[in-house]
Amino acid sequence: MRVLILAPGTTGDVAAPAGLGARLRDAGHDVTIVADAPYAQLVSDAGCGFCAVPADLRQLAASSTHGPRRQAPRRLQILLRETARYFRLAAMTALQAAPGTDAVLVNAVAPYGSDIAEGLRIPSIGAFLQPVEPSAAYPPLATALPGLGALGNRLAGALAQQMPASYDAACAQVRKELGLPPESRRAAQRRRRRDGQPVHHGISRAVLPPPRDWRPGLHLDGYWWPVWPPDWTPPADLASFLAGGAPPVVITFGSIPASQAAARVAVAAARQAGQRVIVQDPATNETTGDSDVLHVGHVPHDWLLLQAAAVVHHAGAGTAAAGLRAGIPAVAVPVATDQPFWAARLSALGAAPAPVPRSRMSAARLAAAITAAIANPDYRASAQQVAGKLAREDSAAGILTELEHLASA
Question: Which residues pair with residue 384 across a beta bridge?
Fold first, then answer.
């Protein structure tokens, strides 16, 4: 089958679908991924076709975090406007790539993909990296709310489904372009849920137990792992650093450029805890003059984290999963959206001490968490237990079965 995967977003939103795409390709499907222009090589390494959205959501997200606090309301207004513009551009790019496709896989922020599929009279399948179905098991992840109890979680989740979203205009524009009857994004999603639209999640049951109140058609398949070039080797300075001492603490705050101030606090904390440090931040080539601190750019997590004593990260879905796959303890420093949820899950699994929210981060507090994560062997043991379960999962099997069913039908 000819499969179109829509992956708007930042690196984690593209890397996992690219890994899934590689598995689909190996099974004989023709796969094209629609993602931001900077991810052409990532998708190419997975052996999939690429259709570029002429944008970079990372830069848009980064620009919203800089400037005086008094200008924050104005920056938020600009961010909402520019994000809506981004999704309209992503939707039109996907629409241009869609003719001739047999099925469309959509992530949680690309519901316009289901409108495209409806207009072309082909099936769409959810391929989500976060649970967004209202449930008693968790609050709505996009809000970064803490757990509200079973009833509160479900009510808040239902309310969140009704809130306006940055991709609403993109959905409306797609329906207009394809001559479909006007229908709000919220109404269309309710209709598709009633019709049992399948949604497969690139999430392991070992990390998120299946919620009891999920409707039929929602599946937890296991993590879709990124693909890296088979001939990749570590840079000489990285290999030398790793050979020169004890396993380091890896600090990584994701692909959205992190503030240098936050990175410096994390480095100071790890050094205060007596640890060697690797800082992974593709946006900076900063050096500290400390021979026990190394800054690196893009390095595969499935290789780098195996060399680490622990990882300090923002608790993004992909990075949290990579740390568990490596079987190492984590110290989570969540900021927003789904990050507090994954940080809480790591702690609940026993693979991390209590999270240190970025808003309350200090060198002393973070140093204490790093020390606890490394000194207490229970954290590593719990992470390794989860790693063993992840290694036994075939995370592409669910969508492959779905596609085989569609092909036979």
Answer: none
Q: Are residues 217 and 243 in the same domain?
A: no
What single-letter DSSP state applies at residue 15? H
71 plus 115 within the same structural domain: yes
Helix axes 168-177, 185-194, angle to 10 degrees: 80
**DSSP, res 13:** H
The answer to whether the CB of 253 falls within 8 A of the CB of 320 is no
Side by side, the strands of the sheet bearing 49-53 are 49-53, 30-36, 2-6, 103-106, 124-128, 199-201, 218-220
How much of the chain is helix, strand and coil, in % rounded to 5?
50, 15, 40
pLDDT in tens, 243-299: 999 999 999 987 665 567 788 899 999 999 999 999 987 655 566 678 999 999 889
Same domain, 200 and 245: no
Indicate the pairing of strand 124-128 with strand 249-252: unpaired
Q: What is the CATH number of the domain that holds 346?
A: 3.40.50.2000
Q: CA 149, CA 194: separation in Å to the nearest integer?
A: 25
Q: CB 303: neighbour CB atoms within 10 A?
A: 14
Residues 317, 364: Cα–Cα separation, whole Å = 26
Nearest one of 173, 172, 174 to 183, comparing CA atoms: 172
Sheet bearing 310-313, strands edge to edge: 293-296, 277-280, 249-252, 310-313, 330-332
Per residue in 201-236, pLDDT (tens digit) is: 999 999 999 999 999 999 999 999 999 888 899 999
Whole-angstrom distance, CA of residue 214 vs CA of residue 180: 29
Bridge partners (DSSP) of residue 295 are 279
Buried b (16+ CB within 10 A) or exposed e, 152-170: ebbebbeebbeeebbbbbb
Establish if 147 belongs to a structural domain.
no
- The neighbouring-strand residues paired with 310 are 249
Consecutive H or E run containing 280? strand 277-280
* pTM (2 d.p.): 0.92
